[in-house]
Amino acid sequence: MRVANFARMALLVRVLGFPLVPPSLLIAQEKDAVVRRVDDHYNHLNSLRTHYAEHYSGMGMDRTEEGTLLLKKPGRMRWSYAAPVGKVFVLDGKFAWFYTPGDAQATRVPAKQLDDLRSPLRFLLGHTQLRKELENLTVVADDSGYRISGVPKGMEQRVKLLSLWVTAAGAIERMRLEEVDGAATEFVFSDMKENVPVKDSDFGFVPPEGVTVVQGLPPI
Questions:
Q1: Continuous H helices in 82-172
Q2: What pTM was estimated for this model as a whole?
Q3: What percent of the chain has pLDDT over 90?
Q4: Closest CA to 217 of 105, 86, 71, 76
Q5: Of 15, 24, 146, 207, which is most buried by a Cβ count within 10 Å?
Q6: CA dihedral sign, ordered 70, 71, 75, 81
Q7: How many CB atoms lie within 10 A of CB 131?
Q8: Contacts of 103 (CB under 8 A, 6+ apart)
Q9: Position 160 pLDDT exceeds 60
Q10: Which of 13-27, 49-63, 123-137 has the lowest mean pLDDT?
């Protein structure tokens, strides 16, 4: 009798067009689809220009800055700050450069040794696979799209949680990094232009006259 009831229910489901899949599995499938859309979106991206607003709070500081972010595959990134004008963070494919106008020194760090709060966006410069980039990955729907969260691999000792707010199409509109010491950095992206013409020379950095280059850890 139970077999007959199940058979009738299965037939009704097929006739009405509803999938015979447990609700929990449907949720898992939706989450996987969201992650795949983000991966696909950036795997088909060659370059990106966007405005960003950055807010940092921690270590007794509360700071808001903004500027323009330029990305180009493979492995190039440039954060040009609007204030102070001339402040930059550049990833040229081999090294990361940090410089603030008025400083006597510019800092250079090998890209492979980079431990900077902007470095999680480097996965957008290669072959994106969020499930391999983030530990304990979760996906939650919100008003405007989805929030993907996890801990970037290799940054577990510094980053407590990375959250990405993405559109239904898979574009990242906001990123928040929560550090283990309680500090938090948030980036909001707007006016995004994809696959714009850019040159490798856009990611070069030449220290101003009189500025020395030192090897070391990047500033906050």
A1: 130-133
A2: 0.79
A3: 56
A4: 105
A5: 146
A6: positive
A7: 12
A8: 211
A9: yes
A10: 13-27
CB neighbours of 74 closer than 8 A, spacing ≥ 6?
Answer: 93, 125, 126
For 35-47, the DSSP string reads: HHHHHHHHHT--E
123 pLDDT band (50/70/90 cuts)?
A: low
Q: How many residues does the chain have?
A: 220
**Locate tokens 């991966």: which residue?**
39
Average of per-residue pLDDT values in the chain: 82
Per-residue pLDDT of 42-57, as tens digits, reads 988 999 999 999 999 9
Report in angstroms the alpha-carbon separations of 166 from 12, 29, 153, 187, 194.
36, 17, 20, 13, 15
* Distance between first and last Cα of the chain: 68
What the block records as the tokens of 218 is 């990047």
